[in-house]
Design a protein that fits this description.
The structure is a single chain. By secondary structure, the chain is of the alpha+beta class. It folds into 3 domains: 1-186, 2-Layer Sandwich (Alpha-Beta Plaits), CATH 3.30.70.270; 195-249, 5' to 3' exonuclease, C-terminal subdomain (DNA polymerase, domain 1), CATH 1.10.150; 268-423, Dna Ligase, domain 1. It contains 12 helices and 16 strands. The strands form 4 sheets. Strands 6-7-1-8-9 form a 5-stranded mixed β-sheet. Strands 10, 11, 12, 13 and 14 form a 5-stranded antiparallel β-sheet that branches. The chain has a 4-stranded mixed β-sheet with strand order 4-3-2-5. It is globular. The termini are far apart. It binds a DNA duplex through α6, β10, β12 and β13.
Length: 436
DNA sequence: TCTGGGGTCCTAGGACCC
DNA sequence: TCTGGGGTCCTAGGACCC
């Protein structure tokens, strides 16, 4: 048995909003999230029939009609088969607002530095220092927070509690989500009855198909077997991921939430699956420019410059050839200028594209540094550079005040441009109004 | 099956340097 | 010549998460 004496023994809450988007929609329509039968469907205008995406489904819709998240609209039951299933458009801005409201509630129970927002609907709270202020047992405190959120916002949450973040996450994913009580507490010493009994490797956070298949090849079919495999073998097969897999099988995780982890590399990206196949270089380049300028505006808004420009092009599956696309990057002199960023993207595109039919385009700007000093270049006078900066900044300002479409490049009006259609989207989905 | 979007981490292998 | 070795940086691609 593992000696857990020197592992952290904290009280970590992992709280997840049950069917978050679908619940926000149910409440918006004056319904109860647990009894409403609805799904949130995102559809791009001008895309082919049946191409909609189910972003979220309410618990009843999942149970009654077998809906799953990120399901294609064409797989939905028909109107006759599911007469009471309601399909609604996403309202991304509303979800963002609700998410912040949930965060406000968490801040009543713990210091901001002890809260880690993991995603729009999941947060981790280190309650070690504060749980006893709210009850006699962490379990009861968890229920109290759940009740608070339900009474204040109408949202239902599931809560995993653990002695470290990993145990809390597993308690939530594996157990709390499926219990009527919607809460569970996992301790190190329970590993044989909890972690080792997880039925499928892919149920575990961090293990997906590929890793599971690799483990299966080694004769490891469950967490018990993983925990009883020599760590050296795992290290040889998986590198540092192997070390991590072994630690996970014993519930070991030494990260501390208040010690903010600073990611080595941060980047901003936008990508889109095009509504149809693009074959013409000019049309493809319009979209590359649009996406490039969109990401460039984002880094400017954060006061950053990029030193690594990355272009991803995905080919249409119908396109012949073995390449399914390409993904290339180039180091550049740090810049936040539309012109320079787009020029580099187009150069990358022209160098690597050989006429294939394109269906997906993505731009990622990385190697970010604060946009403070002016980098001199050989090609432009400082005055010209300052002028370009001013121009980009002015456009950014007008757009933030009057909306993206208040100022649009003429090229975006040409066939192929997608920026205008997508101007009101948030994360590629309908933004709606936060106050609807 | 055919096409959602945003993000991070890890690794292998090549280039280059001493 | 049947030729050293280590370190670092960089790119492409894989894997996973929500």
């Amino acid at each position: 048995m593992y000696d857990y004496r020197y592992e952290p023994h904290r009280i970590i809450f992992m709280i997840d909003n049950k069917s978050f988007y679908a619940s926000c929609e149910a409440l918006r329509l004056g319904k109860n999230p647990m009894t409403a039968c609805l799904a949130v469907m995102s559809r791009q205008p001008h895309s082919s029939f049946g191409s909609g995406l189910i972003m979220a489904a309410s618990p009843v819709a999942k149970r009654k009609y077998g809906l799953v998240n990120v399901m294609r609209a064409r797989n939905l039951p028909s109107k006759q088969e599911a007469p009471d299933l309601e399909l609604v458009q996403p309202h991304m801005n509303l979800y963002i607002k609700r998410s912040l409201e949930v965060l406000n509630i968490f801040e009543k129970y713990a210091a901001r530095e002890d809260i880690h927002v993991y995603s729009i609907d999941e947060s981790m709270i280190d309650m070690t220092k504060s749980w006893h202020l709210f009850g006699d047992d962490p379990y009861l405190v968890g229920r109290k927070i759940q009740k608070d959120i339900r009474q204040t916002l109408g949202l239902y949450t599931t809560c995993g509690i653990g002695e470290n973040p990993l145990l809390a996450k597993l308690a939530m994913d594996i157990s709390a989500k499926h219990r009527r009580s919607m809460i569970d507490f996992w301790h190190y010493i329970d590993a044989p009855d909890t972690i080792w009994r997880i039925p499928k490797l892919t149920d575990v956070w961090g293990i997906n198909k590929r890793t599971a298949a690799h483990l299966e090849r080694l004769g490891i079919h469950n967490m018990y077997q993983l925990a009883h495999t020599h760590p050296q073998i795992l290290h040889k097969e998986f590198g540092v991921i192997g070390d991590q897999l072994f630690a996970m099988s014993w519930g070991v995780d030494r990260s501390i939430i208040s010690q903010r982890y600073v990611p080595k590399s941060k980047s901003y990206s936008n990508s889109q699956v095009l509504g149809r196949d693009y074959r013409n270089a000019g049309e493809i380049e319009i979209v590359i420019r649009e996406i490039g300028e969109q990401v460039a505006a984002r880094i400017r808004a954060h006061g950053l410059r990029t030193s690594r420009v990355h272009l991803f092009i995905g080919f249409s599956l119908r396109a012949a050839g073995s390449r399914h696309g390409f993904s290339v990057q180039a180091k550049v002199t740090p810049t936040s200028l539309n012109n320079e960023i787009v020029a580099e993207l187009l150069a990358l595109f022209r160098r690597h594209w050989h006429g294939e039919t394109v269906r997906e385009i993505g731009v990622d700007l990385g190697g970010l540094t604060p946009d403070v000093s002016q980098q001199l270049t050989l090609f432009l006078s400082p005055q010209q550079q300052i002028k370009l900066r001013k121009f980009d900044q002015t456009v950014d300002q007008v757009r933030s005040q009057y909306g993206f479409t208040s100022l649009v490049k003429a090229s975006s009006l040409l066939p192929g441009g997608t920026a205008i259609q997508r101007a009101n989207l948030v994360g590629g989905h309908n933004g709606g109004n936060a106050y609807e």
